[in-house]
Amino acid sequence: MLLFVTFILTIFHYSFSQTTQNINVLLINEENNALAEKSFEVAKEYVRRNPSLGLAVDPIIVVGNRTDAKAFLENVCRKYTDMVSGKKPPHVVLDFTTTGVGSETIKSFTSALGLPTISGSFGQEGDLRQWRGLNSNQTQYLLQVMPPADLLPESIRAIVTKQGITNAAIIFDEFFVMDHKYKSLLQNIPTRHVITPVKSFSKDEIKTQLRSLRELDIVNFFVIGSLRTIKNVLDAANENQYFGRKTAWFALSLDKGDISCGCKDATIVYMKPTPDAKSRDRLGKVKTTYSMNGEPEITSAFYFDLSLRTFLSIKSLLDSGKWPNDMKYMSCDDYDGKNTPTRSLDLKTAFQEVKETPTYAPFFIPEDGSMNGRSYMEFTTDLSAVTIKDGASIGSKPLGSWKAGLSNPLTLTDPENMTDYSAQLVYRIVTLVQEPFIILDEDAPKGFKGYCIDLIEEIRKIVKFDYEIMLAPDGSFGNMDENGNWNGIIKELMEKRADIGLSSLSVMAERENVVDFTVPYYDLVGITILMKLPRTPTSLFKFLTVLENDVWFSILAAYFFTSFLMWVFDKWSPYSYQNNREKYKDDDERREFTLKECLWFCMTSLTPQGGGEAPKNLSGRLLAATWWLFGFIIIASYTANLAAFLTVSRLDTPIESLDDLSKQYKIQYAPLNESSSMTYFERMANIEIKFYEIWKEMSLNDSLSDVERAKLAVWDYPVSDKYTKMWQAMKEAGLPNTVEEAVARVRASKSSSEGFAWLGDATDVRYQVLTSCDLQMVGDEFSRKPYAIAVQQGSPLKDQFNNAILQLLNKRKLEKLKETWWNNNPKAVKCEKQDDQSDGISIQNIGGVFIVIFMGIGLACITLGVEYWWYKWRKRAVIGDVTQVQPVKLSKNEFSTNEGKKIENFSIRSRNLNLADLKRKF
Questions:
Q1: What residues are designated binding site?
Q2: Where in this chain does the entry annotate a coiled-coil region (predicted)?
Q3: Can you say which residues are annotated as belonging to the binding site for L-glutamate?
Q4: Whole-angstrom Cα distance, residue 501 to residue 499?
């Protein structure tokens, strides 16, 4: 029996001795990373107290300074040489350096000597510079796993993406390495951001740091660090009064516990890691049994799991026979830069296949390609909203979670709730009142309305934000003086007092040097001329003004004189009808030319109807023919001049273009002071002056030969000086300071050919014409430029607004805005069509003809009444005495009927009818 027991123990001892592997580990660490070394010791103790793992770890530890690369390398080489010379070369190098030149030195050391290495350094793919050019064999044994502190900042990317945050300040402490995050954390995301370390633990210095960030128009703050750091920053923010709807605060920490601060009223979105459900029992056991009490807990667990997994990976390779039998090690002195050993060691696969239960969360290892910058602990963070009032936490509301990864999104319990914890984007808009783009309206939500307000509201539907609107202090769009200083809207943007310049702001080259412009939201707009609308005076009797008064009097005198002569000729001529009745008794055309008939004949002769029967006497006919010729000439002249007279007012447009304006002196003209129109004319004048100086310098250049000088010999300056003269005339006329002043000066003009003309933006001029009937736009537009929205230089709003404006263009929303504020503008007035703008003669100028007709009709009616009265009066009977009755005897021939019958004698009695009186009346 004793022999049997001895046999069994011998077999057991033999079996144990065959499976237990002694592993030599070279642990390289930094001075400020004691937590990693402590976790390594816990892992070594764990192996020692669990003989079933079959491991025995023999470590050599080297601790160096992150910044002193030379001393660090010398110390590592010395320790490494001792291990090789002592016949205990390292199976693996555990690299717990985090960042800096010391860490890069260790990477160079391990890659040069071909040492199997597992690193816990910070850095994503390509960030480990000394391990960038690894070949396929080296990527199998030079391995990196990113620590939790390198993964937690990636949650910021998830939050920014989910919330659509456009600006952010990321503040971190010494427990996080962010050097490599500057380029990658928010890459390809349109978010203006600043990544900066906490400068100190002094509250005053943190307050100053926060103020400087706030001055950059940052409203979203991410504080990533220890709970102590978070408290210091939140306390400083509270004293700066940076809590409210206009700011959002996010706190991220690897520490256990809840955040705290002396905040009066604050809500902070808090993210902290939590162990996986499957790992919680193991974590508690390791902490209590092996005294793994380092904080942060997740960091201790990471280094513990990384160390233990490394041990098990080497054991697996040794047990499986995949560890090279002829593993050769070379010293630091033997390396010449080209003799790196070639290894055929698949440490990556062995590391990946370890089945040990994770202590906090599993490691993510990609199936293909290099592990470096792609492997990490796949932990989970809880996301909650913590409300603090008067320094005490009054509640915590769960919002969701985030699983560690390089591009993992947030998982939210209620996505709508998350929007309540983001900063309300409130942009400051600077503008100028310019109808119909910007109109003051106290009843409007923001105090303004107009085309641009409707435009920004449409953009708001696409780019979520709110805004405050204010007027430019100096009332200017923005111009640069001789010293390069700006004013107006441009100055407000340059000095960060405004985020958006919204108005009918023209895109100009010099403005684009200091601010950014979006794509144009309005057509090209140029400069044009506003003048007083010419008002042609109207008169109902305008047709009478064709001839002057003395001509009308002369015609009237000729009419009466000719009528009188015609009566005299007819009365005294022996050949007239009244003096030769017997001759013309059988003539059907018999007309006695009394004075009344003469007047009628001369009057009707001037009409197309004609005068009727002409006189019989030759003298009368000659006089009538003369009157006809006179009438024909008068009527023809009147008709021709009437048409020309009514047309000349429509053709009388003294100014039709800028050239016409520049060639006259009766009309003064000028643009607004400090406007883009003023800048245009001033620069054009300066350019002409510059050209003249160049021409004069060439002409007077003594270095030219006679032939060259002859080519330049001209008497006159060959280039126009139009703008020079115009600019001088503008300065003499005086530049108005406001649109109202300019329009008032235009209205004060005596006429369209004498007064003042305003040179302004075509939209301003067009709106003035739209809302009044006494103004007109003259000439074509020139110097055309588009309107666009201005933002601060480098602002992400440019791309966001560009996208929004292009969408509005595609949806034809901008055309609808034009329809609303131009065609359907409530202030638009409907003007009567002017006579000089019509195709015919207006009633105002020809209406007197109708008055003449009505007067003639009225006179005819009066005459009818007189005639009727006179007829009745004349027909009234007058009874008198019969003085004598005489029988009258007539011959048979005189009184016989056609049948030859005899008519009986009869007598006639006469009444006393007072014939003498009647003759006098006629």
A1: 506, 511, 676-677, 761
A2: none
A3: 506, 511, 676-677, 761
A4: 7
